[in-house]
Amino acid sequence: MILTSHGRLRSCGMNRAEQAYELHLEAEKQAGNILWYAYAAITFKLAEDCRYTPDFAVMMIDSSLECHEVKGFWRDDARVKIRVAAAKFPFRFLAVTQIPIHKGGGWKVEEF
Length: 112
Hints:
- By secondary structure, the protein is α+β, with helices and mostly antiparallel strands.
- It has one domain (14-111): Trna Endonuclease, Chain: A, domain 1 (3-Layer(aba) Sandwich).
- It has helices spanning 16-30, 76-88; strands at 2-3, 9-10, 34-39, 44-47, 50-52, 56-60, 65-70, 92-98, 107-111.
- It has a five-stranded mixed sheet with strand order 3-6-7-8-9, sandwiched between helices. Strands 1-2 form a two-stranded antiparallel sheet.
- It is globular.
- 18% of the residues are buried.
């Protein structure tokens, strides 16, 4: 467990939504739809003492790099950070939310 800057305890590994999304990414990789992905592999410096680490870096078939943020719900600071990162860096930033199976399953995608 790690104490975050907000005083909350956080586990060192992925949460359930991130684990499910990793399975989705692996299936996409096996199907040949993406080349590569990694969890928490890239950290962006947004400002002095302010950093943002997307949940997944994903390399697409055309070798472009995307940053995928897996969210169950948004806190204000997280939404601000991804918007700032999207404005500052030349990558595609996506937020993905798992859709419950009783509502059809899959992933809802929002681009920043």
